[in-house]
Design brief:
Protein name: Dimethyl sulfoxide reductase anchor subunit
Shape: globular
Helix content: over 70%
Keywords: Membrane, Transmembrane, Transmembrane helix
Distance between the termini: 12 Å
Number of domains: 2
Organism: Kistimonas scapharcae
InterPro entries: DmsC (IPR007059)
Pfam families: DmsC
Largest sheet: none
Strand content: under 5%
Length: 283
């Protein structure tokens, strides 16, 4: 699977954006509470670390990394790849600026505006990544389902990742952390239903394509891969949601394991996605 570096880049970048967005929403409810706002900003550092790992993964895909600066020339005609790289850089830069500003209490009157800008760039990044792969020349990608597949991981991984991080500081955030976890678990349950239903509908759409080769038979492991993906998705989310619904909103280990399982599930789904590009181009 020679696109493995892009598998990690896209999934991890979406995960980073999702975590930042969810924690950002919690921060909007925390303005006026300086200690809580700064604590949430410290947790947001995790999203920057994940984004950095995603960037390193993308760098390994470049045959000649020094030519990465050619992206600037691609902006002249709004190359989707150039827009993706530029948006990634802008999101990372503005997110870092917000985190640093809140931790150092620099220009607090502008914190809301900078946070809003970082969140807007995060959404733009999700759409920019999806736009790279919505190609008219690739029938298995030329669909709105591609956008769905590139946005929903940010939702489910963002909600779960943020929940794990908030739980890790539940002793310091007290009742706020418990209320946040209950709200996030409800959103997580809805996200699970949407992503599972949507992926099934996508597979149904894929099966209706008029192609020379059955997309599900491109690789011998596809059926096992899809089965494992669904199993890990449901198991991972259940490890967090079931205890949360029963009132256990402070334990970190079990939801952390669930997050790793869901991350593995999304990586499997992305491998399947890239395999279909190999099929459509005859590789």
């Amino acid at each position: 699977m020679h696109e493995l570096s892009l598998v990690f880049f896209t999934v991890l970048a979406q995960c980073a954006v999702g975590i930042f967005l969810v924690l950002g929403c919690l921060q909007f409810a925390s303005f006026g509470q300086r200690d809580r706002l700064q604590l949430l900003s410290r947790l947001q550092i995790a999203s920057l670390v994940i984004l950095g790992v995603a960037g390193l993964a993308a760098g390994t895909h470049l045959g000649q990394p020094l030519r990465a600066f050619n992206v600037i020339f691609g902006l002249e005609h709004l190359s989707p790849l150039s827009v993706e790289i530029l948006t990634t850089s802008l999101f990372g830069g503005v997110a870092f600026t917000f985190i640093a500003a809140t931790l150092l209490n620099i220009l607090p009157a502008l914190h809301r505006l900078v946070l809003l800008g970082a969140m807007a760039l995060g959404v733009a990044l999700l759409l920019a990544i999806a736009n790279v792969y919505t190609l008219a020349t690739v029938p298995t990608w030329n669909t709105d389902w591609t956008v769905f597949q590139f946005v929903m991981p940010a939702v489910v991984l963002g909600v779960m990742g943020a929940a794990v991080l908030v739980r890790s500081q539940s002793d310091r955030m007290g009742l706020f952390a418990r209320h946040a976890d209950k709200a996030l678990s409800t959103i997580g349950l809805i996200a699970l239903a949407v992503i599972a239903t949507g992926f099934v509908l996508y597979l149904f759409w894929l099966g209706q394509l008029s192609t020379a080769i059955d997309p599900f038979m491109v690789k011998d492991y596809h059926h096992s891969l899809l089965a494992a993906r669904f199993a890990l998705l449901f198991l991972g989310v259940s490890l967090w949601i079931v205890p949360a619904m029963r009132g256990s909103n402070t334990g970190v280990r079990q939801p952390a394991v669930g997050f790793v399982l869901v991350l593995a599930s999304e990586l499997m789904g992305r491998i399947f996605f890239y395999d279909l590009h190999m099929f459509s181009t005859g590789l």
